[in-house]
Amino acid sequence: MSDSILPVDENLEALGAAGDEGPVVMVNFLKFKPGGGSKAYGKYAAAFSEMLTAGGGRFLFQGRVEAKLVGDEDWHAVALVEYPSRAAFKQLVGSPEYKAVHHYREEGLEKTLLYAVKPR
Predict the structure, then answer these.
(1) Which residues on neighbouring strands pair with residue 82, listed in sequence order?
(2) Which of 43, 49, 77, 83 qualifies as a FRET site for 108, CA 20 to 30 Å off?
(3) What's the rounded Cα separation, in Å, for the pair 33 and 25?
(4) Beta strands in the chain (DSSP E)
(5) Torsion, Cα of 102, 104, 108, 114 (10° steps)
(6) Residues contacting 43, CB < 8 A, separation 6+
(7) What whole-number distance in Å separates Cα of residue 111 and Cα of residue 4?
(8) What is the pTM of this model?
């Protein structure tokens, strides 16, 4: 796993190469840093939420993990975020506004997984 929690250029290029037909859902697994990571992430989430809706996206689901039933990883929260297109996602994460608040995400998360999923 990479130390960065920003998508790397190669992965963004692969996402774009998949075509841009319709919405894409980002599945986020989040583990907060001890001692205030959740609070720092909350600052990021508040600013991100405004950018997301302004760009035509929306939260489909957000929730705290209650119990691990299968697997080796421990996660604190899960979020499903829908974007109207892959281009909309790339535009948002590349914007100066996003980059200005991303440090709260870095400060809040110990680790994360992010998967792009095409809805059926």
Answers:
(1) 25, 58
(2) 83
(3) 25
(4) 24-32, 58-64, 77-83, 109-117
(5) -20
(6) 101, 104, 108
(7) 9
(8) 0.84
Task: Please give the single-letter amino acid code of residue 53.
Answer: T
Tokens of 119: 């809805």
Angle formed by the axes of helices 96-108 and 37-54, nearest 10°? 150
Helix (H) or strand (E) run with residue 91 in it: helix 86-94
Q: What strands lie across the sheet with 24-32, from one edge to the other?
A: 58-64, 77-83, 24-32, 109-117
Residue given tokens 């989040």 in the structure block = 30
Three-state secondary structure call for residue 70? coil
Confidence grade of residue 2 (pLDDT, cut at 50, 70, 90): very low
**Which of residues 69 and 17 earns the better pLDDT score?**
69
Beta carbons within 10 angstroms of residue 8's beta carbon? 10
Please identify which residue in the block is written with the tokens 């963004």.
12
The domains located in the chain, with CATH, are: 22-117 (3.30.70.100)
